[in-house]
């Protein structure tokens, strides 16, 4: 009988030969007659060269309000263009590089360049541009010129918006059990924001923004079989290029944001023993601010000489005691030691001296947070989790020096049913603390009965329900509902009650290989009650605030048209928010309107010309409307200078044609 020897036959023969019995290496096998083609991994290819795609887009914007730029990528009206792409390079010796870009040429876009050798080192160069618009064509009778706000009969027209441009450079190196990294970035902020002052009547104006933030990070890390540690440094420097603002009849009426810097050194690590994992970190830092103060009568300091020393630490442990039971816990510590200068300052009552002096008191804050939790698998697909959290905060020179928040929570997870997952979480929390000392430590303008919401006694009860259901292989449903209520039973003046509840529903459908779609809906309601005193005594008025938010959306895509070359798609989103405030004194009177709504739609057609080239045309539409009764015309209120009616009411359109080329 004749036969071809395969790999198993060769191995048996080698093992049976006395001279070769000591060497069982595969390299000793004779594979000349073995057909190895059928054992090759067809997908395990080591592609070298360039892969990815590059896209060039050109289009047209029909924009009457620059606020539309928040949704369309740019507030420019007229012709627009952008470049996007994702190109990778793989070399023969492990060298690799990647270039990513998204909407370069628009107001919002980014670019990434990275390269290096796999498992050894990598460098990266990043660029990000983000622009957000508040309002366009804002009118003000004040002109800003080298720090001087000058009134004029001619209105100054400008946009309220902020542009951020960030450039970053980084390098990572790692080999065997050690590694290091260095990152540097610089972000420039420019634009104009709304601000106000009183001199002597209220004045609203556009404040110029021109600032730079520099960030530098570096660190080294080591690792072993069951441990790792890292020592790192983080530093940032903020520089404001806008000085104090003045009026023609008064100097330095508006102080500039001061330059400042922050530095941190961090040591962190992780260690595991069998099924017990421990990790921790300790961070020490310092925040510094030493700009000159505006000099005025009664000011004893030339500069603030601000300094806050920080210390943060954390230790966490989790352990699988059995195959069913897992226990965990953590301890967090945070301290803010304010070393800033302190002096006696003359007290002002609006624009006149009172004759009294008071010393500024730098506040220190110390926090301790303790958490313990347990997870128990009752049976296959059933898990019960519970935990207890406690946060202790101590503040010097505060209305309330000590507060402690206690929270008890429980989760129940069900995964036992086919195509059905169920989670429920319940929480009960309580805050209390030391005696409230409003009479001694707050200013004379505060009512002694007032309780600040973040310091007042509070009881919170909350519940959340999550469900996922996949009745068929083409349909998936996710539902989340939640409810939370906060009660401030000991508060006579201030926030007395708050209620927050809502739901989210997501439906995903894949009807066949060519048609899929989605639908989602969500609503949230926030209702709160507060009590006040117009007569600076007992409560004599109340307010009910009702906020409602709605989000609805749907979309679908249809592929496979024209011999699988054409894909059509549509997306639609509706959002609406309403805020109603009712003030109750002798009767009930509502505040002015405050609501907004938005319709957004996108239609696209994607056509594959061949395996490498594709064309895509996209149409986007936005209908936006909002109204805030607080926004009024420039001269609507006698004695007050405003920025005018900056509410929005517009329709915006965008048409974009994109050409994409795929690299093989």
Automatic annotation (TrEMBL):
It is found in: Cell outer membrane. Its main location: membrane. Keywords: Cell outer membrane, Membrane, Signal. Residues 1-21 form the signal peptide. It comes from the Bacteria. InterPro entries: Beta-barrel_TonB_sf, Decahaem-assoc_OM_MtrB/PioB. Coiled coil: none annotated. The keyword Membrane applies. GO terms for cellular component: cell outer membrane. Transmembrane segments: none annotated. This is MtrB/PioB family decaheme-associated outer membrane protein. It comes from Shewanella gaetbuli.
């Amino acid at each position: 009988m004749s036969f071809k020897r395969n790999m198993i036959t060769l191995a048996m023969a080698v093992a049976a030969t006395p001279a070769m019995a000591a060497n069982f290496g595969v390299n000793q096998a004779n594979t000349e007659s073995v057909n190895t083609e059928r054992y090759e991994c067809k997908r395990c290819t080591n592609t070298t060269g360039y892969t990815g795609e590059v896209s060039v887009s050109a289009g047209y914007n029909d924009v009457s309000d620059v606020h539309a730029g928040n949704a369309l990528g740019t507030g420019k009206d007229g012709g627009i263009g952008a470049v996007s792409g994702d190109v990778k390079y793989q070399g023969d010796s492990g060298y690799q590089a990647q270039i990513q870009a998204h909407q370069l040429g628009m107001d919002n876009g980014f670019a990434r360049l990275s390269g290096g050798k796999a498992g050894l080192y990598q460098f990266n160069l990043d660029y990000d541009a983000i622009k957000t618009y508040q309002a366009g064509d804002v009118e003000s009778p004040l002109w800003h010129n080298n720090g001087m706000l000058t009134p004029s009969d001619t209105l100054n027209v400008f946009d309220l918006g902020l542009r951020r441009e960030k450039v970053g450079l980084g390098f990572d190196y790692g080999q065997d059990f050690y590694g290091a990294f260095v990152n540097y970035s610089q972000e420039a902020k420019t634009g104009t924001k709304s601000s106000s002052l009183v001199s002597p009547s209220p004045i609203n104006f556009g404040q110029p923004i021109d600032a730079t933030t520099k960030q530098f990070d570096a660190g080294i890390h080591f690792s072993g079989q069951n441990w790792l540690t890292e020592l790192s440094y983080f530093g940032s420097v903020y520089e404001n290029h806008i000085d104090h603002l003045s009026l023609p009849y008064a100097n330095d009426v508006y102080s500039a944001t001061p330059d400042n810097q922050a530095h941190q050194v961090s040591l962190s690590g992780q260690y595991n023993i069998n099924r017990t994992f421990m990790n921790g970190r300790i961070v020490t830092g310092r925040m510094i601010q030493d700009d000159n103060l505006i000099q005025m009568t009664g000011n004893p300091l030339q500069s603030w000489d601000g300094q806050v020393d920080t210390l943060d630490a954390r230790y966490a442990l989790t352990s699988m005691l059995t195959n069913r039971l897992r226990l965990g816990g953590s301890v967090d510590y945070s301290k803010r030691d304010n070393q800033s200068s302190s002096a006696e300052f003359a007290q002002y009552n609006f624009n006149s001296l009172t004759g009294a002096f008071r010393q500024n008191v730098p506040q220190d804050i110390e926090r301790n947070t303790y958490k313990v939790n347990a997870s128990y698998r009752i049976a296959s697909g059933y898990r019960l989790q519970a935990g207890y959290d406690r946060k202790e905060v101590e503040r010097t020179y505060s209305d309330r020096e000590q507060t402690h928040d206690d929270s008890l929570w429980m989760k129940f997870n069900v995964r036992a049913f086919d195509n059905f997952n169920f989670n429920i979480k319940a929480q009960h929390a309580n805050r209390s603390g030391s005696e409230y000392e409003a009479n001694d430590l707050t200013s004379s303008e505060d009512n002694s009965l007032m309780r600040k919401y973040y310091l007042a006694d509070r009881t919170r009860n909350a519940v959340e329900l999550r469900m996922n259901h996949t009745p068929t292989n083409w349909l998936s449903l996710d539902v989340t509902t939640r409810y939370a209520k906060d009660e401030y039973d000991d508060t006579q003046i201030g926030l007395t009650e708050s209620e927050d509840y809502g739901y989210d529903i997501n439906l995903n459908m894949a009807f066949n290989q060519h048609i899929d779609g989605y639908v989602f809906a969500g609503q949230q309601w926030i209702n709160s009650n507060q009590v006040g005193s117009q007569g600076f005594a007992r409560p004599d008025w109340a307010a009910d605030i009702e906020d409602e938010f709605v989000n609805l959306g749907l979309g679908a895509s249809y592929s496979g048209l024209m011999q699988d070359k054409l894909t059509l798609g549509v997306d639609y989103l509706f959002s609406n928010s309403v805020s109603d405030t009712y003030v109750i004194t002798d009767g009930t009177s509502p505040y002015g309107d405050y609501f907004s709504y938005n319709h957004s739609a996108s239609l696209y057609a994607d056509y594959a010309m061949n395996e490498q080239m594709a064309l895509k045309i996209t149409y986007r539409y936005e209908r936006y409307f909002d109204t805030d009764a607080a926004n009024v015309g420039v001269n609507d209120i006698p004695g007050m200078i405003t920025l005018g009616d900056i509410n929005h009411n517009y329709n915006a359109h965008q048409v974009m044609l994109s050409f994409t080329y795929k690299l093989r």
